[in-house]
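Possible regression after last week's pipeline update?

I re-ran a chain I had predicted before the update to compare outputs. Posting the input and the new output here so someone can diff against the archived version. Not blocking, just want to make sure nothing changed silently.
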Amino acid sequence: MSTPSSTPSSEPPSADGTETKTMTVTLNLDGSVSDDSAPPSAPPNVAEDASMLVEKLLAVNFEVKHLQLISTLAFGNDNMKKAIASSPLIIKLIGFFTTASDPDVETTKSFCAALRACTINSAKGRAQCRIPELYVSFLKSLKSQPENRDECITTICAVCMNDEENCKLLKEAVGSVDLKDFVDDNEERAKKIKFLEALME
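New output (post-update):
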């Protein structure tokens, strides 16, 4: 019988100095997950050994809940981010997304959040994103899921920033596609697309 593992953590102090709630994330070897009380965006202070959590994530068949857990664990937690970058977890994460025949809106959104959490401020994490199918899948999502265009563009920026090889793969995937077609009169998105175009020059 597998034993569930709990990772108690706390949200950062609020601006007024009041105490915040405590969160417990539980990940079983069978892949079941529970998240008590804290919002998914709260960066946890993981008490359990980060590498052990990564090993457990590598052992399960990914579902959306696991993508959300990766995002929660990696966001703002350097120890977890380093453990992830030193493992094949990012490659598994990308494979889950790129091999999906038609990922739905929630899957794409959760994938983008997880990949950003793993790669922002992590050159080692970004180096694992040199997979051509990733950028092809991003382009497909930009075309088929207008509601996820912000998520996709923001994630592409995170993956390609300060990484010349990833920029080359993005340029190859984009080809003759004009990224400006995905602006949709969104000023912030237009700035990010302009940034990506500069990276691809």
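Follow-up from reviewer: compared with the archived run. Residues 129-201 form one domain. Marking as no regression found.
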